Amino acid sequence: MAVQCRDRTVRVEYVVDEDTVRESVSGELTVPDEKPDIERVLEVTTEISTETATVEEGGVDLDIELEVGVLYVADVPEDDPQQPVHFFEGPVSVSNFVELPNAEPGMHVITDVQIIRTSSDFIDERTIEVTATLRKFAKVVEFRQMTIVTDITGLEHGLIDKELLRLNDVIDENVITEVVAGEIDVPEEKPPIERILRVQGDLIGEPETTVVDGAVIVEGTIEGGVVYVAATDEGDQPVHFFEGTFTFSYAVDVPEVSEADDLSVFTDVTVRQITASFVDDGTTGFDIVLEIFTKVTEPIQIEAVVDVDSDKIEVEKELLRVEEVIGENTITETITGNVNVPAGKPDVERILAGTNATVLNPTATVQDGGVLIDGEIEGAVIYVADVPEDELQQPVHFVENFFNFSNFVDVSGAEEGMTAYANVSVVNVRYSLLNQRTVELTTTLQKFAKVVQFRQLEIVTDCIAVSPIVDEPCEDRPSYVVYVVQPGDTLYKIARRYGTTIDAIVEANDIPDPDRIDVGQKLCIPKKIIDPKG
User: Which residues does the UniProt record annotate as the domain LysM (predicted)?
Assistant: First the structure.
């Protein structure tokens, strides 16, 4: 049987380089002019408002803007109402270069930035310094079309080494930019708008995707928020906040996809720009620019030839660096814990809005059959104290407690030693006053885990079969033998096999067209001792 190679062409997401770094960043926030001085900081929160990644030579530029919120008790004159709670916010910008030696401009970058912990220092009555610890992951990939040899016929099976690969064959991808427009009305209980201070917009949850012939439908919800100065009869210009939602649905053209196929869709929706307009004192208009990237893949399993122990064939190899997606899963879990008022603080009369929970430093460990996600919840309670009538009335206090959580997310095929990507988010927080010294917090968490296995190996991408040699001297050239052209042969393959050049074979055989040789044609080539294996 003649030796023949079978192959398959796939388009893979080739991992060029990746790294994870931790960094602590600090910035100072100043109380706005219209706000009173700080007596005591109650709580500081941080969230990522914008994140931009650009691939440069040798790494990735990460530009991140953190939105920092500060809740504090004001320092006001004695004849004014005491201990009013105020809130202000501001940005902290972060710029960092993640070194990835093999990165080049034009490659695709995947990032995951998480806030691990936030702390603050009181500088003076108008200024605090906020420090956030970030965990930044950056991975640079490029889409490569590769030919993978899957089998070789005509050789004993024991001479062929294969590896099972679980790949995502990239069928198609596209990126579009769209503008979501809408209006949000001020709630009835809120005063009308005098002046808009700031607007924000964030994607709620993950977008939903539907594959149709030639496109992917991407649907989702954007939550828009408005910080504004209220128009009041007193003219005291209090600052208020309200929010509302917009839905969007767009078709991303990906011509190569079909709804009949078993496909996976990755979609990344990024808020690029937000602008607001004053419609009237009860309505704010929004224009939100979205960038929607969609990649459609087909999960496949391929037995790839990685080595051949035979002189009947020569092979070409190429290094393959990919992440095999083993599986992913999302679960919801409810954590209940108590926040106790410590000794020295007064009893609770009433719990205030702003009581919340924050996930701290989640870790993910792959075990057989899934991912163990551990972490800590910081429960924060803001309350009005129950104090005797002859003491200062309605002082605001802050207490906190920490709860550990641990949960197993089932992921079929996961094995110890693989890598996990995990994300834990707070979906909802409820609170109830059990007694004047204890508040029960019920936190609903959404946990996402994806298990991957990084594979780096050399695979066979092409075969050059060694065809039979007819041991008959060429006329008047005893140092040559006759070679019979076989199916699939080219002059390049023949010349490469016998250590000569295409030009030498063309000259020795007076071949008029080097791109055309016929099966069964006899060629004179240098005699070579061959003792093929297999």
Answer: 481-525
